[in-house]
Amino acid sequence: MTAFCLVELDGGVEGGAAGVADVSLRALTLARGLAASGGLAAVVFVGGASTGGAEPRVGPGLVADLAAYGVTDVYAVSGIDGYAPLAWARVLQWLMSEPANPELHESPGESSRPAPEHPGHAVVAAGTERGNEVLAHLGAVTGLPMAANCTGLVDNGAGEYAIVRQRWAGLLLEEAVLEAPTALLTVATDAVSAVPDQAGAATITVHDVAPSVDGSDLAVRAIETPAGGGGASLATARVVVGGGRGVGSADGFGPLEELAAVLGGVVGVSRVVTSEGWRPHTMQVGQTGTKITPDLYLACGISGAIQHFAGCSGAKSIIAINTDATAPMMTRADYAVIGDLHAVVPALTEALRQRRSTSELSPLWRRP
Amino acid sequence: MEILVCVKRVPTVGGAITLTADRRAIDALASGFTISPHEECAVEEAIRLVERFGGSVTVVTLGPAAAEEQLRACLALGASGAVLIETEPGLEVGPIATAAALHSVAAEGNFDLVLLGNEASDTGDYQVGIRLAHLLGRPVATGIKALAVDDAAGWASASRAYRGVLETFALELPCVVTVKEGINLPRYPSLPGRLRAKRAAITRVPGPEPAAAAAADVRMASLRVPDAPKKQATVLGQGAEAVPALVNVLVELGVVS
Questions:
Q1: What is the per-residue pLDDT for B227?
Q2: Would you say the ipTM is above 0.85?
Q3: pLDDT above 90 coverage of chain B, percent
Q4: Cβ within 8 Å of A, B 198-217
Q5: Which of A145, A367, B57, B155 qualifies as a FRET site for A292, CA 20 to 30 Å off?
């Protein structure tokens, strides 16, 4: 079987500068377990017109990153401008269809291996807005079941899979059976670690494909504009400074924003902050907001409702600052500071600034 | 505009989650039931559109007889029609069968717009809206945080944030849109609204049989609460005096150099 994995990219595709999104590395890690015999195929939508194979549409850096995760085949799909969920689903349907689609042989720029040698038996994507959406379309057009936000997967053979998936955004886990000729599933963005293939980089083949797509499948298509803020996105930030009810007011976020700037991170908030109107909903961390996976979550004045944990439990480390030492966030954090965030946060910012200015001066006399 | 909003009765989750003895559901005897936050916003969005363009809002749910409680809550907010697709208590209906059952209601009415929450907060299947749209043969956008409808022109513009980019989709009416919390701030029910809701008639239609409800979908075996990290937080100190220890931890974590 071949496991096809929809791979999302960070940054621009042109010039090969794009990297594989962390969420897709997590999805590849889970998909790899399915790909024992027929290989692991990454499907990358590169947009624009086909180059007829004249120049590669995915850069060597991207190919190397994918190879490190055990990818054996890359399908670089051109001919679809931008994100069109149904059209993307049709391309996945075409790739997974059996017997090997003859159109694939005719597609321009095709290299040595036109189609997967084995029929595709799994299609996997990260559990992002796009991943869940494209796989739900794929489920609808094929009539196959789709399991969203899986954290574990065992192939029992004969088209039966034992899966573990998130419910309540991860507050509950469901153990279930998925029975289908082709398994469609997305991978939880915050519960599976990205692990390179221990077997080392496999031989990898890049296929430039430009499948024909019906105009009606392109009717719903995203027009992309930069989102407000311009800074690092909450979902991908390495450091998130969280603020909750304890911040007390809209103006109270100034010191948190300064601290986030010093740490190179962004500010996230709890649900009470957005329902009070102190900050917009785009900044909300939690079950109905954004799920974050930073190296550090610094939770200030957040008591820790269960729905908030659904959004921040993917953080590698949590430091909590709260006046109430018994708050759930304080007991479930790795480190806790008992005290008023209005005193601790500015003092921490100041200490980090002093530390930085000292280290900027130090090389002059510390150099050996 | 005629708008259909699909909602789902789910347990209210507050503190720790407790499962029933068979580990197939949340024990909600004490906590009660509600609809998902995304769906509260779907109901609010529908009411605002009808206030602006005229027409009416119908709410539909697939669930046990007790889900009447959630339909009446939506009626109190301003919906004028309610349909209960009634299933056996305790029967969990998968997303394929749910979409088919909703389709039977959605196809009968002359709805310009069908609104759903992006995902139900309990099962989180992320697909009922899309499967319903395919059954209806209508365009669909999901995860929407801003919706602008041009009733006269027959188009809707729907936007969402995706990894730091704003994605905007143009949809021809009639269409299906799934929304997320943040699209609006839902209102509270008025007293006249509550009184009206108490007396309102609810249309009841039979739901799928247990065998049909499970067919072709992911089959749940059991639920479990993930192991809570049994770690005890290391207390770094009290107030601003803890800052030096805090800085050391940040260095250890590699967050500052």
A1: 81
A2: yes
A3: 87
A4: 216-217
A5: A145
Best probe of the A interface among B218, B234, B248, B257, by most A CBs < 10 A, is B218
CATH number of A2-218: 3.40.50.620
pLDDT in tens, A106-154: 444 444 334 444 455 899 999 999 999 999 999 999 999 999 999 999 9
Percent of chain B with pLDDT over 70: 99
Location of each CATH 3.40.50.620 domain in chain A: 2-218
Q: Are A25 and A69 in contact (CB under 8 A)?
A: yes
Chain B: closest CA distance from residue A200 (Å): 27
The answer to whether the CB of A154 falls within 8 A of the CB of A133 is no
Indicate the residue of A135, A178, A338 with minimum beta-carbon distance to B235: A338
At A299, is the secondary structure helix, strand, or coil?
strand
The answer to whether residue A129 neighbours chain B at the CB level (below 8 Å) is yes
Reported as a single tens digit per residue, the pLDDT across B40-69 is 999 999 999 999 999 999 999 999 999 999
Percent helix / strand / coil, chain A, rounded to 5 = 35, 25, 40
Instruction: Give yes or no for a contact between A121 and A183, defined as CB atoms under 8 angstroms apart.
Output: yes
Residues of A in contact with B170 (CB under 8 A): 220, 223
Report the residue of B232, B250, B251 to disrupt the A interface, i.e. the one with the largest count of A CBs within 10 Å: B250
Range A130-133 contact pairs with CB under 8 angstroms and sequence separation of 24 or more: A130/A6, A130/A8, A130/A83, A130/A85, A130/A88, A130/B162, A131/A6, A131/A8, A131/A23, A131/A27, A131/A186, A131/A187, A132/A186, A132/B119, A132/B126, A132/B127, A132/B142, A133/A85, A133/B126, A133/B130, A133/B142, A133/B143
- Beta strands, E only, B2-112: 2-7, 10-11, 33-34, 56-63, 81-86
Fold of A239-363: Rossmann fold (3.40.50)
| Each residue's pLDDT tens digit, B153-174 | 999 999 998 887 899 999 999 9
The answer, for A140 touching chain B at a CB cutoff of 8 Å, is yes
Task: Check if B255 contacts A (Cβ < 8 Å).
Answer: yes
For testing contact with chain B, the best of A179, A319, A360 (most B CBs within 10 A)? A319
Domains and CATH numbers, chain B: 2-214 (3.40.50.620)
